Description:
By secondary structure, the chain is an alpha+beta fold. It has a single domain, classed as 2,3-Dihydroxybiphenyl 1,2-Dioxygenase, domain 1, CATH 3.10.180.10. The model has no long low-confidence stretch (mean pLDDT 97).
Amino acid sequence: MKNLIKGLHHVTSMAADAKENNDFFTKVLGMRRVKKTVNFDTPEVYHLYYGDEVGTPGSVMSYFPFGPMPNGRRGAGEVGVTEFAVPKGTLGFWKEHLASKGVKGLRESSFLGDARLELDGPDGDSFALVEAEPENRTAWTGGGIGEADGVLGFHGARFQLRNADATGELLTFMGYQKGDTEGSVTRYRIDGGNAARTIDLEEVPDAPHATQGAGSVHHIAFAVENRAAQLEVRKALMDTGYQVTPVIDRDYFWAIYFRTPGGVLFEIATNEPGFDRDEDTAHLGQALMLPERYRPYRAQIERKLPEIA
């Protein structure tokens, strides 16, 4: 599997309220909504994607806003923190900006020399802004945040696990290299792909098992260039004993899924065809785009979906 995984592709979480979720990412974090579509299995629920101008793999946070539902319980067996990269020297701006928007849980910290600002999302989601080099990434500026300060894409993610050994072995098999440890957290890093290259494993041996709900990460997706690479990864995983789904067409990428030893759901997603396959770049995320099987039912679906700008 060496050199096939290219870093993160996207992270998908759950939310309670679609408008609140949309406003947080587009008006508070200043990201672009690059696609407004629906859940493949539950078409009365949106699937909203936020990222940079074109939804570059490694920049995209997506959500299923299911409506009123309990918040998830933090614990072991989940992606505990989703981390976004911001330009170096901007955490002061972000702390002031987020406080002015009423964002809760602002906490300054550092890990392995990287300055971080942790924050809570609308449903108790756990996020961190991490200062990083741009690496040819450009922030979306349509959300009112200037390019010099804006979100560049993902920095990485932090898992919370009772025991990190098996997940660490899996990441190594996927091409990640084990790095330094600080406290109970060990960094894994993959090079040769995009800039969303770090996964941190935090051991929380006494934590209760996480339960999913609003604010929980549903799955985390890793990028491969194309379907041929994806099939190689699938075969390698299955040869190692993992139960991997068949390839599924998600309109904007092809996906396979499998459950990790620590309980986190992994996806391997292709960089092709991208979010501009059915909309031009200038209008990404504006119209409701439906999977082909739901297009005959557009009127009924639109009546059930809440309005979002």
